[in-house]
Specification:
This protein is α/β, with parallel strands linked by helices. The chain has a single domain, classed as HUPs (Rossmann fold), CATH 3.40.50. Helix content is 52%, strand content 7%. Helix 4 links the parallel strand 2 and strand 3. Helix 2 packs across helix 3, helix 2 packs across helix 8 and helix 3 crosses helix 8. It binds nicotinic acid adenine dinucleotide (DND), adenosine-5'-triphosphate and magnesium ion (MG). Nicotinic acid adenine dinucleotide (DND) binds next to helix 6 and helix 10.
Length: 273
């Protein structure tokens, strides 16, 4: 195994093989215990129709139910956060059916994104790039979830897992902004495996991943943007040998995204040197 590969696996806490039932129990247990320790009223999570939020949502719902069994009045809130009309809305609805949340709502971020873009362009006298606007969409989704959480005493679930964390493939303080990360340490195929194990529909656990943040290229696949296959990322994280070009690309992403896996650097930090 490559030297950096071993370090990354340890830093991200990835297991080469997992027992799906054990991992589900460990993660529902974590969410339940955290809820109780934080004295919170429940969890909120955006449900996109992708596999990560399908799994994160179901785990959140199971934790809310388990805390209720212990006498607390906790609830899981699923929130649809479309940007105007979402092309794969049918997948989002299938995810909601599977998650079976205590409460559901829709908060359309489209009007807020439009207003934000308009003021940006006025202030800077420049058109906001489609890429930058995509990150603004992810941050407005974060704001919507925190607005709901703040009023109702909830915590925000984040869906970051090892296959996104290793490349920094998330928006800093956007989908990267959350209170708890129940999928931490999982590879993408392990996320799929747990979703299947919980009885999720194949159309969701087998779905092609997309950040779906671009107006100009809707549904662009993560693999196309990254120039990497999740199978290679997962193999690398599970300690297997991958082609040198893929390993080097993963390590390049890892090194340039170190700041995304840390608190903001202050004068006493040296990790960035
Ligand atoms: N060395 C450094 N130390 C401290 N901070 C540093 C830094 N370099 C940049 N930064 C800061 O980080 C910012 C760039 O980070 P960020 O704003 O995240 O932007 P960036 O990493 O450039 O873009 C986010 C990427 O994540 C992908 N994404 C986003 C959301 C969801 C998903 C998904 O899979 O669903 C994927 C998206 O497609 C895109 O490729 C810079 O503007 C700067 O403020
Ligand atoms: N349209 C949306 N509606 C609600 N939540 C969203 C939407 N788009 C993104 N999110 C939130 O942002 C998170 C990050 O998006 P990401 O694309 O990584 O996950 P996913 O869509 O659940 O799965 P996949 O990565 O396989 O597409 C999602 O898990 C979800 O919580
Ligand atoms: Mg997605």
């Amino acid at each position: 195994m490559r030297e950096l590969q071993a370090k990354i696996i340890e830093e991200l806490g990835v297991k080469a093989t997992i027992d799906p039932q054990e991992e589900i129990e460990r993660r529902v247990g974590f969410l339940t215990d955290y809820l109780i320790a934080a004295n919170a009223k429940g969890y909120v999570l955006g449900i996109s129709g992708g596999v990560d939020s399908t799994l994160g949502g179901r785990l959140g719902q199971l934790a809310a139910e388990r805390a209720r069994e212990q006498g607390l009045s906790t609830e899981f809130f699923a929130v649809r956060l479309p940007h105007h009309v979402q092309a794969d809305e049918h997948h989002a609805q299938a995810a909601l059916d599977f998650v079976d949340p205590d409460r559901r709502m829709t908060f359309n971020i489209g009007p807020a994104v439009d207003a934000f873009e308009k003021e940006h362009d006025l202030a800077t006298d420049r058109r906001m790039s489609d890429f930058n606007k995509g990150n603004a969409k992810a941050r407005l989704r974060m704001m919507a979830q925190y607005a709901i959480a703040g009023d109702l005493g909830l915590l925000v679930i984040g869906t970051d897992h090892a296959a996104e964390s290793v490349t920094g493939f998330f928006t800093k303080y956007g989908d990267g902004g959350a209170d708890v990360l129940p999928l931490a340490g999982l590879t993408k195929r392990q996320v799929r495996l747990l979703t299947k194990e919980l009885g999720g529909p194949e159309e969701l656990w087998n779905k092609v991943p997309t950040a779906d943040l671009l107006d100009d290229d809707p549904g662009r696949t993560d693999e196309d943007e990254l120039g990497l296959a999740y199978d290679d990322i997962d193999d690398y994280l599970e300690g297997k040998e991958v082609a040198t070009a893929a390993a080097e690309r993963i390590e390049w992403y890892f090194n340039r995204s170190r700041h995304k896996r840390r608190m903001p650097a202050d004068v006493s930090d040296t990790w960035w040197r």
